[in-house]
Every structure is written in C-alpha cells, then in structure tokens.
Amino acid sequence: MKAFVTGATGFIGANVVRVLLERGHAVRALVRPTSDRRNIEGLPIEVAEGDLRDFASVKRGMEGCELVFHVGALYSFWVRPRRLIYEVNVDGTRNVLRAALELGVEAVVYTSSVAALGLGSRDRPATEETPVEPRHIVSDYKKSKYLAQELAIHFARKEKLPVYIVNPSYPVGPYDVKPTPTGQLILDFLRRKVPAYMDTGMNVVAVEDVALGHLLVLERGKPGEPYILGGENLTMKELLELLAGITGLPAPRVRIPYRFALPISYLNAWYCALFGGTPRMTPDTVRMARHYMFYDPRKAVEELGFPRTPAREALRRAVEWFRKSGMVKGVENGRPS
C-alpha cells in the first residue's frame, strides 16, 4: 500500500518512514521546499513539495495514497510568532484530515502527544482517561496539541473517518537532527552544558518503539481512541545518572529550586525575545517541570503489543547517534558502555 507521510524529515517521522519501508509499503512524503532533508536522503520514497498550512498542496500530495500518517508538527516551547504553532499543529491537522475525508483514504494515523492528555503524578502516572485540567495546559505547544487531538477525535466520531491516535511521551534515539527539546537535553549533557537540574520527571521511550507503534495501532487499535506510546518513568536525576553511566561523564549534583528557576527563565526568555535565539528554559517549561510527567502505557502494551525498550538502551542509542552525527564535535567525553 502507498502511505502519505507528513513530517518525514523530522525525528519521529523519519523513523516512521523507515518502518513503513521495512514493512513493504511505498511512501510519499510531504516536504516543504526549505526543509532540511538529511533524514530522508537516499531513501526510496517519493517527495511531494507542499506545506501543512496549504490545503491544496496537502490534498495534491495525498492523492493516490491509501494510508496517511500525519506526523508533522512544530515541537517547540519557543515559537515566534506564536500563531505559527497553531497554524501548523491545528490548522495543518485540519487540512490533513479534511483532505483524507474528501479523498476517501482507508485510514489515518495521527501523531498526537502526551501533552494533549491530563497530568498524573509520581505515584499515579497519567493514563488516556486522566482528565485534562485547563490550568495544566500552560504552553502554546500543549494547547495546540490538545486542540489538534480534539479535531482528530471529531473526525473519527462525527465524520466517520478512520483516524487512529497515538500519544508518544518523550522519545529519544536516532534522526533527532533539530533536535527536539528532549534530544537537546541529551546533547547539552554531552556538551557538558547541564550544570544543575530540577526536581521533575518524564517518561522516556525509544523512538524506534514509537515508530512501530504507528503501525501497530493501525493493525490492532480502535479509531478515535488515544494510545500512550511510552516507556520508563524517570526523575530528572535518574535520567542524568543513566546518561552519566552510559557516557562516563559526571552527572550534575546541584538541584535548582523552582523559586529560583522561574525568575531566571523570565530573564532568559526576555533576552531571547530582544536579541534572538532560543532560550534553554522558558517560564512555561519551568511551570511544567513542577509536575512529574509520568505516564502509564499499559493500554498500548496490552491492546497493541507495544514494545518497551529499557530507557538505558534508548538513551544509549541516542548518545551513539548524536556522536556519529557529528553534533558533539570538540567535546571530550567518555565512550558508551
């Protein structure tokens, strides 16, 4: 079957494309003319130039495809102008789903995010059923992914479009060229730019597992239902200690209290707004760090057969890829164990 893939040049998308090719599917990728295409160089795929914000180019690229994998999104906590993240993540999703409905495709897999779900706690990780509290949707990224997922659910339930929804947690691994915020943390660690940490936590998952989950949901999932594609829940301290064990580099020992981190983040954001650049932390990311972003992927494991690569192995692969990609040049470090 022929699959239309958005976001193929990105982190998750590049891994989804490879799984599709391994399973014998033909792939046509929607790619902006200005996109960095390193992640798809040399792959036997078709390229259709277009933009998620342009319905005509989305529909034109999708014609003749039976399957749609809408992976493309802006994954960032600092986008200027701010409206851009809604144009891409919300309006772009609407364009993809509308085109799929009009063309009568067999199925759509939509890559949502745990950012669109409710928050749990360290003791009670969130599930797909955890209620979403508006006060916890604190960033434009989270808001845009929540609104986009609501669109996907609407098209599945009201328009009867077979839309399958996956919610990756915090993937790590190969082809993170941008990198994503999670990948940036690993890269900063390798560059010895993580002098301290905050008392928070996240769910770390291998990106290869996430890519496979996109096909598993198509084979075994139910349209209109979210599935958390997650791995291990780790505190930030545990994550950094794992990286230290993998690389031989020291883990930071200093913990920054929230009351100090928040004003620093405002200064950081203010400086970048005036002089350009991307802040390492923003007021939104610090507010999110107050919560343990722990998730329970049991539904995907039991219903889809979703694999769970250990976090240490997922992080080791990420470290190895960052080093081989040349993104850690000029830094003395240990070797992966």
Q: Could you outline the blueprint of secondary structure elements for this entry?
A:
Layout: E1 2-6, H1 11-22, E2 26-31, E3 46-49, H2 55-62, E4 67-70, H3 83-103, E5 107-111, H4 140-157, E6 163-168, E7 170-172, H5 181-190, E8 196-197, E9 201-206, H6 207-220, E10 226-229, E11 232-235, H7 236-247, E12 254-255, H8 258-275, H9 283-289, E13 292-293, H10 298-304, H11 311-324
Question: Summary?
Answer:
With 337 residues, the protein is an alpha/beta fold.
Keywords:
337 residues; disordered C terminus; four-stranded mixed sheet; seven-stranded parallel sheet; 42% helix
Structural description of this entry:
The structure is a single chain. This protein is α/β, with parallel strands linked by helices and 337 residues long. The protein has a domain at 2-177 and 206-231: NAD(P)-binding Rossmann-like Domain (Rossmann fold, 3-Layer(aba) Sandwich). Helices cover 42% and strands 16% of the residues. It has eleven helices and 13 strands. The chain has helices spanning 11-22, 55-62, 83-103, 140-157, 181-190, 207-220, 236-247, 258-275, 283-289, 298-304, 311-324, and strands at residues 2-6, 26-31, 46-49, 67-70, 107-111, 163-168, 170-172, 196-197, 201-206, 226-229, 232-235, 254-255, 292-293. Strand 5, helix 4 and strand 6 form a beta-alpha-beta unit. Helix 3 (83-103) runs parallel beside helix 4 (140-157). The protein is globular and about 55 Å long.
